[in-house]
Amino acid sequence: MRTPLIVDVDTGIDDSLALVYLLASPDADILGIVSTAGNVPAAQVARNNLAWLDVCDAPDLEVALGAATPLSIPLRTTEDTHGPEGVGYAVLPDSPRSLSTRTGVDLWIDTVRARPGEVTGLVTGPLTTLALAVREDPELPRLLQRLVVMGGAFHHPGNTTPTTEWNVSVDPEAAKEVFDAFSGLPAGRRPVVCGLDVTETVEMHPEHVRLLAEAAGSAPAEVISPDDLLTVRSHAGNPVIRHLSDAIRFYMDFHRTHDQGFLAHMHDPFAAAVALGRVPVTVRPATIDVELAGTLTRGMTVADWVGHWSREPNADIVVGTDPVAFFEELIGRVGRYARGRSRPD
Ligand code: RIB
Ligand code: CA
Fold first, then answer.
1. Which pLDDT score is estimated for 226?
2. Where are the transmembrane segments (predicted)?
3. The pTM is what?
């Protein structure tokens, strides 16, 4: 069974790996890719998406431009986390592919309406474009088969402020509008929310990169060391491995600079594997709302697990997973996929 997917990203380093993982997944039927501003501006997100399709010699998939600014506040990007172009140290050739003539909002609405009840939405960036699509078509939550979101933090510190996670922090109003709009869905159709509580247990280490290159049959061995000079770049013979390694290395440098170790939290590929049902997860229903007025806590995702607010749950929050199983899945699929794409770019 293939999963029809709309993938809404703010490509970024982990979004990049999520995209390659989905391209590598025969059970992922990517109906469209929406480029929403977040890690980097929307136009750069779109450029990155098109460039990764080229690197992977992927079929002609529709890439649309999503929201360029949050609903009601100025855009804030994070090139210090994801690199000046959002793909770390990777230098991706410009793609000759064209952007869709449709907007990201129209891609969401048209695609879901064309296949009511069948499409899974995966959002690994701010929820701005989806919020705009729901404003235009309030039926969208009921027409989607499922929504999977990478965002929020529940019993876990934020990564952007002490209480907020990046995707929600960029556009808290959009997150609130989406969680409100997806209220009232029956169990089994509620959005699945992958917050930092779990995604920060999904730690990619240099050994994972070495194993990924090995699975791709790439040579020489891809060894990323914390002792490398910051100027070191991959010499992997396989272009998919080379570009992914240069992207991931930047993310590892960033995490080390922020005292989290020489590793990379792979938030978005994890959410992608959840969307395909390819990783074991434990979920717990809750009612999620977003703090918009807090002086210190604006953008905080608040989960009511026990009904304090007398509101029905509007989300299934992922509270547990198996990171080892996840990396076996990721390395297996992306390694096999990259092996078949060894032509020099
Ligand atoms: O907080 C992590 C999330 O923010 C990830 O999706 C990362 O790509 C950034 O968008
Ligand atoms: Ca992202």
1. 93
2. none
3. 0.98
Query: What residues are annotated to the active site?
Result: 267
Helices (H), 171-299: 172-181, 196-199, 206-215, 239-257, 267-275
Domain that holds residue 271: 3-203+261-339
For residue 311, is it within any domain?
Answer: yes
Instruction: Give the CATH number of the domain where residue 93 resides.
Output: 3.90.245.10
Q: Report the pLDDT value the prediction gives residue 342, as an integer from 0 to 100.
A: 77
Residue 165's pLDDT is what? 98
Q: What atom in ligand 1 is closest to the CA of residue 125?
A: 10
Q: Is residue 223 part of a domain?
A: no
Q: Which residues of the chain have pLDDT under 70?
A: 344-345
Residues with CB under 6 A from ligand 1: 10, 12, 14-15, 38-39, 124-125, 150, 159, 165-167, 267-268
Indicate whether 208 belongs to any domain. no
